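Before surveying the methods themselves, we first show a specimen of the format, giving the amino acid sequence and backbone structure tokens:

:::
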Amino acid sequence: MIFVECEQESPEWHQARAGVITASTFSDALAVLKRKSGDKEAGDPTDASDGLAYDTAFERFSGAPYGDTFQTYAMRRGSEQEAFARMRYESLYNVMVDETGIILTDDRLFGYSTDGFVGDKGMIEVKTPQNSNKILQMIRTGDVSEYIHQIQGGMWISGREWCDFIMYIPPLKGVNNDLYVKRIKRDDDFIDDMVTGLLKFNKRVDDAVKLLSAPMFNKLAA
């Protein structure tokens, strides 16, 4: 593992992620069509997956982020509230959370931006959704499948055994119920399947790099 100490959304953070397939994008990387669409068949990569592969290819040439890195209000809000969620979690569970920046695999192909490590075996993943329907549904069902690739991907890259998924809900602070926590255990079978798919995705990135490396101009006739 390679550790990069940096603050989330900082220029150093964006730079460290350039050309890297990060856990927050694993779900998009692996996404396939469920039915035929245009010239694509069921099982083919989605447009989002293709776009991610090509963006990553451009980043591997430039060594810099490709596309818009503008931090939206929701992103700023999430970054700011993550610190409050972390402190609240530490207080409730009487633990200390170590912030660790970005972790890269030794080949620098894959990475994970951690929200914090707990002891020798645990980690946390913090989300601060604003959609009230999503919040209520998650509380009712405990379904965190939307984030499972990121969470299991983080455990794969970091070597951790469990992750406490934290949903921070500031409007409920007045009733002392502003933190939803669900512990998720490492699933090696899921991780093995995921890594197999991610290696195939990286092959598509490599193919795009090769295509972009070939000369794209011909000598003009005199």
Notes: The mean pLDDT is 91. The chain has seven helices and nine strands.
